[in-house]
Design a protein that fits this description.
about 30% helix, Alpha/beta knot, alpha/beta, 2 domains, 4-stranded mixed β-sheet, 60s Ribosomal Protein L30, Chain: A, homodimer, 9 helices
């Protein structure tokens, strides 16, 4: 039986402030919880409406699960996990990494994390005004990839100034991404859904690339940031 | 002043049954409504909280707009439009078209419609159990591309049997999409978010393609259907 206070504490983990104060976040669903546990993430508590094997857990009634779940239809298992400590200075810059400037939509960030996992990108650098990757909606939409891809919230200006490798910016006025030859190390910078990459940041980047539109005049004016990232990564990792 | 009955009729357009009975659908937001009007779509009524020029409209109070809007934060303009009549038998098969088998998520379909608009794909064939493209959430997430890309709800088995061009299926066990040479006409079939392409349909398709994963063992098991479509279209339209 969960006390009202315990229920409140778990629900409040939907807010960044409470995650930072408590050092905890929530992940729901069998696949996601097991993927985090199997990847060595430390659980504070696992709540389940059904008996579990191997993992220590607290059995809760479905009515209780509904009170602590962040999903509209709760799954049988909810894990409260400790936030990890990532050291962004230890990132290996001999690989390709992604940079996100002011990405606001949790679903977009989650989809991009899953995409990076598919292409073997281990690190994403996010501007501090981007949505937090431990927001429950982001965690859920990563489909488990949050266990393997690290989001670092850093000052992007410093990151790009200090970067020795090639930096690419996705814009609407660059050269065709099909004509670019991508090195095996570098950064790809994607901008916000509504405003693109901030002007001040864009000034620091030499290579602007664009996905050519084949729709002609009057077609779509832009692409969703996750689908644009998908197309560019598809080309960057082209064997 | 809108009557309770009028308000109810507009709200009910969130349901396919009511859209089909009335022959109407809802689009919200200045850009979307104007894009439909400018593309010649016929409005039944335009509701606005602010005076409009050129278009006939009904001025409504914000409190009324909140009652008819399908958005959590209503925009100043809402249009009720007539459903179009598409003739799928008139589709030009000399181009590349997309086929969607059992796509359930409105956001995914909307994003895919926007993506097709970018690549100049004019027709999408959807299985009848796919989400309706005039669902308000789909319409909103197309960002206006619904005005230009046509979704035809047809029997996919017949479509594929009757197709003279090459048909590609996106699966997890095909050959690398990077190694395929894509013709300028054909069909690309994408499957449902949770179950992929149905077995019976897959049996009718000769060419199975897969986006290779670079994440190695233990990486993401699959991609979101909209991002997978993005990567494949990026390659299909590679100049």
């Amino acid at each position: 039986m969960l006390s009202k206070n315990q229920q409140k504490n778990i629900r409040q983990l939907s807010r960044k402030k409470h995650r930072q104060e408590s050092g905890l976040f929530v992940a729901e669903g069998e696949k996601l919880v097991h993927e985090l546990l199997n990847s060595g993430w430390k659980a504070d508590q696992i709540y389940s409406t059904e008996p579990l094997q191997q993992t220590p857990y607290t059995l809760v009634h479905l009515s209780e699960m509904k009170k602590i779940s962040h999903l509209s239809s709760p799954s049988p298992i909810l894990g409260v996990f400790h936030l990890p400590h990532y050291d962004s200075s230890a990132v290996n810059h001999q690989e390709f990494s992604l940079v996100l400037d002011n990405i606001a939509d949790p679903g977009n960030l989650g989809t991009i994390i899953r995409l990076c996992d598919w292409f073997g990108i281990k690190n994403i650098f996010c501007s501090s005004n981007s949505v937090d990757c431990f927001n429950p909606k982001v965690v859920q939409s990563t489909m488990g990839s949050i266990a393997r891809v690290r989001c670092h919230y850093v000052d992007l200006h410093t990151l790009i100034e200090d970067c020795d490798a090639k930096v690419f910016a996705a814009t609407l006025d660059g050269s065709s991404h099909y004509k670019e030859s991508f090195p095996s190390q570098g950064l790809l910078v994607m901008g916000s859904e509504s405003h693109g990459i901030s002007e001040a940041l864009l000034e620091k980047i030499d290579h602007r690339i664009t996905i050519p539109s084949f729709g002609g005049r009057g077609g779509a004016e832009s692409l969703n940031v996750a689908t644009a990232t998908a197309i560019l990564l598809g080309e960057i990792f082209r064997p």
